[in-house]
Amino acid sequence: MAKRRLTQRQRERIKAIQERRRDKLEQQTDLALSEADEGQSREGLVVTRHGQNLVVTDDSGHYTHCLSRQNIGQVVCGDRVVWQATGDNQGVVTAILPRATALIRPNYSGEDRALAANISQLVIVLAPEPAPTPYLVDQYLVAAEQIGVNTLIALNKRDLMDRDALHRFKQQFGHYTGIGYPLIEISAKFEHGLDPLIAQLKDQTSILVGQSGVGKSSLVMALLPDIEIQIGRLSVASGLGRHTTSATTLYHLPTGGQLIDSPGVRSFRLGQLSLDALAGGFIEFHDFLGHCRFSNCSHQHEPGCALQAAVASGKIAPQRLANYLHMAAGMNAPHGQG
User: Fold this and answer.
1) CA distance to 146, 273, 305, per residue, from 337 (Å)
2) What span, in angstroms and rounded, lies between the C-alpha atoms of 253 and 101?
3) What is the pTM for the complete model shown?
4) pLDDT, tens digit, for every residue of 132-183?
5) Exposure of 161 by Cβ count < 10 A (0-12 exposed, 13-18 middle, 19+ buried)?
6) CATH fourth-level superfamily of 275-329
7) Are 134 and 326 in contact (CB under 8 A)?
8) Dihedral of CA 65/68/74/79: which sign?
């Protein structure tokens, strides 16, 4: 069924309604802030956001429902913020502290928006079904390099694979460990089957990515035995009910570290990149970029191509170069890293 187009008048009406709502919220925020004690500014961590409603936690683990001043920009899950108390378990966020990293994805208008902040580790979850593809893995790895976070590849549902299936998987994905990306095997069906993942999550702020059906939700539930308690505390603090956690939410892991669960990350893909940035996302290319005979080398068929020579000598996996070329072909931009 085709999506109905809005008329210009309808678009203007929607815009006017949104502006009135923003003005009303800003008035409420300003009123609350005028009643706050200026000497009570403190730092906190945004655990979840639902519209302009935030839940902020302090070092003691106490949750506070906050509104956000609109002139400070968009606050997202994982942000470190400055906030002021305005009442019993109520506050206003007045500033966003500098972000170490930000997970970006386009919104429905094509504008880049932060989905979560201060992530330190991207966990790429694979499983026997749906069949994993190195191309999708490479997309995630390039994105992780652009963000500047550590990356872990986790083969979930290891219990469903026999020896031959595991051998085929390692033939297809084993080269990632040589590049520098850890690859672990996990299964909730085995005793201590999640221990390798738990160890990697400790002291990190991690987010799980991967295809639908690889078991991300089941992993979240297994890693967070107290998730119902955490959800309950969030619901009480926000005053918005349990649907608050349909938004991107940060949970504290009982063994250390934090896990961000985000429904929006399912469609997370590479944004707009230059070819130089794309090539830089393939970390094993770094020693060879800039050493091709031709400055505008496409790394496909030109003589003296350093990347092709590296593939021939076993220093770059053929599939990695093939995936880079596939991604580059969709960018329609000249090469500049010969």
Assistant:
1) 17, 14, 11
2) 20
3) 0.83
4) 999 999 999 999 999 999 999 999 999 999 999 999 999 999 999 999 999 9
5) middle
6) Probable gtpase engc; domain 3 (1.10.40.50)
7) no
8) negative
